[in-house]
Write a structure and sequence with these properties.
It contains twelve helices and twelve strands. By secondary structure, the chain is of the alpha/beta class.
């Protein structure tokens, strides 16, 4: 299947400034040499703890944040150098769903104005056409089209996120960056929004870059999963294989924290608790960035950065001592039944 999105060596450094007129001499390495690809109609889940650079990666992909270096190709065309009308045309193809359903909607605009604003910016249709399209989009995401003249404060968090999804769909995009779209919602509402995104992908042949820190959420919607730590991808692969046999110690620790919907199994599992806090992205550790917290780190880990290499077909990990952590030997690395966990999230 054709690759819709190809990201190569993407890097984003933010200068650290001490005062208004000072020049930045230090940099925050938010994203450092990140590469991945997403096929048309598929979903890549990008996961990691807060501050690892996953949201910055998503924003760089659609040029909301300008990357420091690297390549982003959309349908084979480089987008990092686009400007003016060319960049505007690209934005019709790539949209974003923001994390906060409260801050991402203008409280002074009606729902109809919010959903139709992309059409207005791109001069698509007449006023009546945009109103009709807005009502159709609201109906598509499960909201009452008759509420088109209401304001955001009249809706719940889950309903506001549906409005954000409708706005993202207004221009009929091919790629949608989902920046933690359910993290601010209740568990039951999370399941509804995830099922909505899943249905829309099937109906509209959408491609998602799905950003989250909750692995159970990512597992429910993703075809592939990429794990980030301190600005770098440390493991990537098909979600079933990655969840069943994670090779990187960081991935294993994340999966050990995923709850299991079975009290007996949950009680018998062993948690992998990492010592300390993540290092500062201003001065990341030498060698492997995870070695300061890794339970199996050796001398080579602090000296040499491990490359992202294939450990099995379609499965890559960046670890000098990458070893699988299969379900039957994990002692709690992952859930005993991956499908059961997916079901639990979907039916929550």
């Amino acid at each position: 299947m054709a690759k819709l999105l190809e990201v190569t060596s993407l890097t984003k450094h933010f200068p650290v400034r001490q005062g208004v007129f000072s020049r930045g001499t230090e940099f925050v390495s938010a994203v450092d040499d990140v590469s991945f690809s997403v096929e048309q109609g598929k979903t890549l889940g990008l996961v990691g703890e807060s501050g690892c650079g996953k949201s910055t990666t998503g924003r760089c992909v659609i040029r909301l944040t300008e990357p420091t270096s690297g390549s982003v190709k959309f349908e084979g065309r480089e987008v990092t150098g686009l400007h003016g009308s060319d960049l505007k045309a690209f934005r019709r193809e790539a949209q974003i769903i923001f994390q906060d359903p409260y801050a991402s909607l203008n409280p002074r605009m009606t729902i109809g104005e919010i959903v139709s604003e992309p059409l207005l910016i791109h001069s698509i249709g007449s006023g009546s056409d945009r109103t009709r399209k807005s009502k159709d989009l609201l109906d598509l995401v499960g909201l009452n089209p008759e509420h088109i003249n209401r304001y955001p404060h009249e809706f719940s968090g889950g309903q506001r996120q549906r409005i954000g999804i409708a706005r993202a769909l207004a221009l009929d995009p091919k790629l949608i960056v989902c920046d933690e779209p359910v993290s601010a919602l209740d568990v039951s509402i999370q399941a509804q929004v995830l099922n909505l995104l899943d249905r829309l992908q099937d109906e509209l042949n959408l491609t998602y870059l799905f950003i989250a820190h909750d692995l159970s959420v990512v597992q429910h919607i993703s075809d592939e999963v990429a794990v980030m730590y301190l600005g770098k991808i440390v493991e990537v692969g098909d979600w079933r294989e990655l969840y069943a046999a994670p090779h990187h110690p960081y991935t294993q620790s994340l999966l050990s924290a995923v709850p299991v919907p079975d009290p007996d199994v949950q009680h018998s599992r062993d948690r992998i608790i990492l010592p300390g806090d993540p290092p500062s992205p201003i001065s990341p550790p030498s060698g492997c960035r995870f070695h300061t917290r890794c339970p199996i780190a050796k001398d080579i880990c602090s000296r040499t950065e491990p490359p992202l290499l294939q450990v099995s077909p379609g499965h890559m990990a960046a670890c000098h001592f990458a070893k699988p952590c299969p379900i039957e030997l994990a002692g709690g690395c992952v859930t005993p039944d991956v499908d059961t966990q997916v079901e639990g999230v979907a039916q929550a």
